[in-house]
Amino acid sequence: MDRPNYITPTGYAALRAEYDQLFAKERPALVETIAWAAGNGDRSENGDYIYGRKRLREIDRRLGFLSRRMKAAKVVDPAQAPDRTRIFFGATVTIADEDDQHRTLTLVGDDEADAAQGRVGWNAPLARALRTAAIGDLRRVTLPAGEKEYEVLAISYPAA
């Protein structure tokens, strides 16, 4: 990876929890089911065996992905931000567009982004445009729907 995989402590804990769940619970149970199904005879028409092998490949692929993401992760605690007057990783910002539509969003790691919850990935176009902005700054962003200008109305960080 050419750029760091920034992530909040909460986001890292969620990745770790998913990895542990898959590795310690789901995978062993599935291996047991596959072994039982394999002992039932003809594997070519054995649904439990075929589905189990397919699901095992999916789990192994996800475990590999999670492992790589956790290894590349750089955990950054937004509560420790030294400059709280500008937008950096973990900031919760309120912005307004040209139509005075207000949005509140939090800049988080790409692995924990969720637009429906107002969490925008650190490398998303909007987040890149807002980096280092202060209250009152105007930032222009090129989005798929066209170019928009946003004004920063508020910046906050979690309490230390």
UniProtKB/TrEMBL annotation:
<dbReference type="GO" id="GO:0006354">
    <property type="term" value="P:DNA-templated transcription elongation"/>
</dbReference>
<keyword id="KW-0804">Transcription</keyword>
<comment type="function">
    <text>Necessary for efficient RNA polymerase transcription elongation past template-encoded arresting sites. The arresting sites in DNA have the property of trapping a certain fraction of elongating RNA polymerases that pass through, resulting in locked ternary complexes. Cleavage of the nascent transcript by cleavage factors such as GreA or GreB allows the resumption of elongation from the new 3'terminus. GreB releases sequences of up to 9 nucleotides in length.</text>
</comment>
<dbReference type="InterPro" id="IPR001437">
    <property type="entry name" value="Tscrpt_elong_fac_GreA/B_C"/>
</dbReference>
<keyword id="KW-0648">Protein biosynthesis</keyword>
<keyword id="KW-0251">Elongation factor</keyword>
<keyword id="KW-0805">Transcription regulation</keyword>
<keyword id="KW-0238">DNA-binding</keyword>
<dbReference type="InterPro" id="IPR006358">
    <property type="entry name" value="Tscrpt_elong_fac_GreB"/>
</dbReference>
<dbReference type="InterPro" id="IPR022691">
    <property type="entry name" value="Tscrpt_elong_fac_GreA/B_N"/>
</dbReference>
<dbReference type="GO" id="GO:0070063">
    <property type="term" value="F:RNA polymerase binding"/>
</dbReference>
<dbReference type="GO" id="GO:0003677">
    <property type="term" value="F:DNA binding"/>
</dbReference>
<dbReference type="InterPro" id="IPR028624">
    <property type="entry name" value="Tscrpt_elong_fac_GreA/B"/>
</dbReference>
<feature type="domain" description="Transcription elongation factor GreA/GreB C-terminal">
    <location>
        <begin position="85"/>
        <end position="157"/>
    </location>
</feature>
<dbReference type="InterPro" id="IPR023459">
    <property type="entry name" value="Tscrpt_elong_fac_GreA/B_fam"/>
</dbReference>
<comment type="similarity">
    <text>Belongs to the GreA/GreB family. GreB subfamily.</text>
</comment>
<dbReference type="GO" id="GO:0003746">
    <property type="term" value="F:translation elongation factor activity"/>
</dbReference>
<dbReference type="InterPro" id="IPR036805">
    <property type="entry name" value="Tscrpt_elong_fac_GreA/B_N_sf"/>
</dbReference>
<dbReference type="InterPro" id="IPR036953">
    <property type="entry name" value="GreA/GreB_C_sf"/>
</dbReference>
<feature type="domain" description="Transcription elongation factor GreA/GreB N-terminal">
    <location>
        <begin position="5"/>
        <end position="75"/>
    </location>
</feature>
<dbReference type="Pfam" id="PF01272">
    <property type="entry name" value="GreA_GreB"/>
</dbReference>
<protein>
    <recommendedName>
        <fullName>Transcription elongation factor GreB</fullName>
    </recommendedName>
</protein>
<dbReference type="Pfam" id="PF03449">
    <property type="entry name" value="GreA_GreB_N"/>
</dbReference>
<dbReference type="GO" id="GO:0032784">
    <property type="term" value="P:regulation of DNA-templated transcription elongation"/>
</dbReference>
